[in-house]
Amino acid sequence: MATLLPFHGLLPTPERAAEVSAVPYDVVNSAEAAELAAGKPYSFLHVSRPEIDLEPGIDLHDDRVYAQAKAAFDRICAEAPLTEDPGKHLYVYRLIMKGRSQTGVIGAASAAEYNAGIIKKHEKTRQDKEDDRTRHVMTLRSHTGPAFFTYRAVPRINELVRAECGKPALFDFTSPDGIRHTVWRMDEAASRRLAEYFASDVPVFYIADGHHRSAAAARTAAECAPHNPRHNGTEEYNFFLTVAFPDSELAIMPYNRAVKTLNGLDEAGVLAALDREFTVSACADGEVARPGEFKFYLNGQWRLAVPKFDIARFDEIGRLDASWLQDRVLAPILGIADPRTSTGIDFIGGIRGTKELVRLVDSGSHAIAFSLHAVTLEQLMAIADAGKIMPPKSTWFEPKLRDGLVSHNF
């Protein structure tokens, strides 16, 4: 069964929570992080994107980058300040975006359960990103950015979490992007009871977002254990920060694609190639109404493409729109053989909308853009249960969790 344990949370003061919290490191580049953190000395972007406080163009894996992260973390801990809860708690975290709310539980997940497959993944991780996150965590001796888990909803867990939301909040603020963030600290007795519910009622967690954070946490535990002659598996380095949401609270957005060239073809050539396997028709916009079809924007026109082949005969992975788009269009027609490594394709999170696809093509930076239907949570869970891996950039979850509200030291 899945573990979600109370821990000694490292917290900002309520007055500084909004100022300290920041978007995750992996949703902004260096320039965007520097702009967001400008004039905000306590923003956690100084910790998660420390290169913003060093010379422009520095190698992101330079020793000085990690040293700067540690210096920023220590400074914020001292000055903001951040203090560690004396007791072990779980924390309830609610996000409201455009009127839709999702509420989860902040707790400590088990690295051993990640290794054992009780925490299930659906994406491949990259070695360089694992290396970076592991070094970052080991340098800070803290998990400052939570992994994002989901699980099949359990009524009595939902009931206990709802009860907490009726109490006075620890933090409650609206971030600059318009998302409201509210955190409640559960008392120790309620935290223990909720942890027992997870242990008895939740057989597995699914990683929704944070595959590299989870992999880095497992590597952190493996690195720490040999240096502790009394290692017994209960030490804090064996656990890592996560927020776990019931599946009933979540929605997945599409993850769209924009390709830079037509691989030597012109518009007529692309349409002729698509005609072999798709029925193509002009349409008014880029919103995809149902799975099993896609839309594309080319030369100022949106078009709908409906497959002539039977998608139902494929397996769980093959039925994903991103899979057959890659196999039937991106690779054979546009030359994107490996989307994980190709420099000819960009992935556009659904939060940016189809207007961003139009902008990219109309600007001339890209030649064609593809709008997809969102993957469902049931698809994600079925693929993870089967031990299979989704195509890269298949899911986009919103709203994003903030770094810095609750951290986990070890």
Structural commentary:
With 410 residues, the protein is an alpha+beta fold. It is 32% helix and 23% strand. It is built from 13 helices and 20 strands. It has helices at 17-20, 30-37, 45-48, 63-79, 111-116, 127-140, 155-165, 188-201, 211-224, 267-275, 321-330, 353-363, 377-385, and strands at residues 9-12, 82-84, 91-97, 100-110, 119-120, 142-143, 147-151, 171-174, 180-185, 205-209, 239-246, 252-253, 255-259, 278-283, 294-298, 301-307, 345-349, 368-371, 396-397, 407-409. The protein has an 8-stranded mixed β-sheet, sandwiched between helices. A 6-stranded antiparallel β-sheet has the order 14-16-15-18-13-17, sandwiched between helices. A hairpin with a 2-residue loop joins strand 15 and strand 16 (301-307). The longest helix is centred in the first third of the chain and has 17 residues, at 63-79. The model has no long low-confidence stretch (mean pLDDT 97).
